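Sample 3 of the quickstart, ligand pyridoxal-5'-phosphate:
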Amino acid sequence: MDGPSPVHATIPNNLEAFWMPFTNNRQFKKAPRLLVSAEGMHYRSHDGRRILDGTAGLWCVNAGHARPKIVEAIKATAQELDFAPTFQMGHPLAFELASRLTAMLPTGFDHVFYANSGSEAVDTALKIALAYHRARGEGQRTRLIGRERGYHGVGFGGISVGGIVNNRKFFGPLLAGVDHLPHTHDRSKQAFSRGQPEWGAHLADELERIVALHDPSTIAAVIVEPVAGSTGVLIPPKGYLEKLRAICDKHGLLLIFDEVITGFGRLGSAFATDHFGVQPDLITVAKGITNAAVPMGAVFARDFIHDAFMKAPDGQIELFHGYTYSGHPLACAAALATLDVYQEEGLFARAASMAGYWEDAVHSLKGLPHVIDCRNLGIIAGIELEPIPGRPTARAFDAFLKCYEKGLLIRTTGDIIALSPPLILERSHIDEMFGMLAEVLRGLD
Ligand SMILES: Cc1ncc(COP(=O)(O)O)c(C=O)c1O
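Result:
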């Protein structure tokens, strides 16, 4: 990545055709920010600047950009087997990958269903939960419980159980029979917590209230992000996830952890379930599974769930669900190579070993102008800014633009800055990242 590629470095003549996702299109197209290449911890912008990646793309490039082993695996597979269906057919890489993945999971998680994104993984998990209860003769368990401020992608299932108002309010009545737990964040009790906040485990008891309201016999599953990312980094209070697990067990509800951002090392362990020592029944993943080099999502299912489907009559398809690209050969090849890189470089342990230095750097921002909270876990940070009165989101977005100008990619949601860099980062990258961010914060209105 020695300089801008002459082929890609110019701004396309016409930016109109691409209707950009989760973007203020009109604003972007007036002053576009294009990334034209990437390597390791850095992007290169169209105007030739090196941009330190403080967000691993979108929480997904955990092993850093353009890793040769992953690139080579994709190239070789594209030549060998461009596509193979997995409906009533198969190909070896899909089976090999599933075995590799289940070997990383806690005992009893021996089955993988493939999707192509986090949103699809979530819809798949919700459908498996519903169909599981039906398969065992409790088809009246149709309710799904999500959480306020939860993000589970943008499918109708995901936005129904999700709790972000702008992702819901434009799209009609959504799925019927969904209820929501309260979110777990209260700045007055938790501000500047290092790691898991002490306060808030009791919020899981709200599940008892919801169960009492609807009756357990109507509820299929509860879905939460172990650490909520997209809604501004909400770290679970100590004891909270354990309580959710116990209440689900008491009432026969499946517990789904959406590990689309926490999976593959972000907390310094393979999965959040390992970090917190709490086992759900279904786990959704995406992003880091292929280091984002090819889209892929997956659901990991505990054996008792999978086995309930295998009692269907002989000759019958057990689960009427799947995507043309479930287990796409290129995604499988990318994922296998990604798992090699994680393993060979010990990247999850590396993240764990960097977490203390990271935490100190995050909390060094306390006291800077507008900073009303800093929170962290693993290699994740949330830095909350006081909103400008009457202009919510404007201050954080200004920080985003100024950081980009300086050479740092951050992500903002509301007035919260979220950081989640690749796990290959060095201490010097952390110093550089927080140095730039502090300078920007000092210069904000
Ligand atoms: C927890 C969680 N679930 C689901 C998704 C959706 O993933 P995708 O954008 O790949 O559909 C995301 C994306 O950020 C996420 O953070």
